[in-house]
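Ticket #398: bound-state structure for pyridoxal-5'-phosphate.
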Amino acid sequence: MFSQLEPQPADALLAVMAAFAADPSAKKLDLGVGVYRDESGLTPVMRAVREAETELLTAQNTKTYVGPAGNRPFADFIETLTLGDHPVRRAGRVVTLQTPGGCGALRLAADLINRAARGARVAMSDPTWANHVPLLTGAGLVVDTYPYYDVATGGVAFESMLETLKRLPAGAVVLLHGACHNPTGADLSLDQWRVLAELLGTRGLMPLIDIAYQGLGEGLDQDAAGLRLLAERLPELLIAVSCSKNFGLYRERVGAIIAIGEGPAQASILMSHLQALARRMYSMSPDHGAAIVATIGASARLSAEWRAELDTMRERVNRIRRAVTQALNHELQSQRFDFIAAQRGMFSVLGLDSQTVLRLRSEHHVYLANDSRMNLAGLPESAVGRFASALANVIRAG
Ligand SMILES: Cc1ncc(COP(=O)(O)O)c(C=O)c1O
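RESOLUTION: The complex was predicted; output attached.
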């Protein structure tokens, strides 16, 4: 049976990670892989997570299934973090299902859309996170793109984005990044979310919002302000939530899909479909990570501790952004990289050609993703100067 299978092309980012691992240099910098790192280069287990985990290990007396909708206190906490005390919740229009990571939520969202409208079209930003295409097309959806990033300003190419969205057929889905756009770091302003809400409403387009970095841009509530605004103004909305980055729970696979329907009856139909879809794909959610998040949510002390740790992470990323910009301004005597300080989240695209990216690797042991996406959180503050001089060096040489 398997003799006809051809080997799959290697994942480009995994190849960069392998090259990094094989580089013996003590100075090497991994700015490719998309995980948060502290100053010592570690992706730490957060203190609140460790404490919740310890509590759980003592209290837990069974490993039986949690049930098809997953951990309910977890779902409630995630709804509160994402939507706050939103009128759509009070109206009974919201349902939330625990999923294996944000990817699990995106895949379930895609399956749900495909069930409602087979082969529906989903428009995603150009560029977007590499995994969006396989996750959504794997469920049978058809992908379109809309312009998003303005290389000249490092901001959102909002007018071109609107022009393209205006031409989509009613019923199309628009995939949006809630905050901390991956890979560009360019986020919509609240005014732009407002204009977008209007356009989506009048054109009958359905937003699917991917929020994987809540709390790492401006703050927990600020990062969710755009999606909360859409939830106020549109009849239907899907939100894919990831707890990988903001709880540091990557390998535990913790996420949720939030579905907002026109009313309580539709919301409960959505929940029944989500459960049925999960059942036929992986049956039951994993428990441990969601139980950790629920334990944090249930304790005022652990919640406060987690929020403080998240603040520290966000402040580190934003501090690195400012420091890198300043160091590059100094090295190059130009404002070319000012956009890095203005953007948010872990990533920026530096706009380098592939030769320059390769020279950074081979001559300076600095590893960016092939599209010159840089993970700012991967850079220790102590290495900012070295990074800036390496980058200036290859730019001048090119
Ligand atoms: C934009 C975006 N969405 C979703 C995810 C999902 O992550 P996970 O499945 O690990 O929760 C990621 C992870 O890198 C991401 O960058």
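RESOLUTION NOTES: The chain has a mean pLDDT of 96.
TICKET STATUS: resolved
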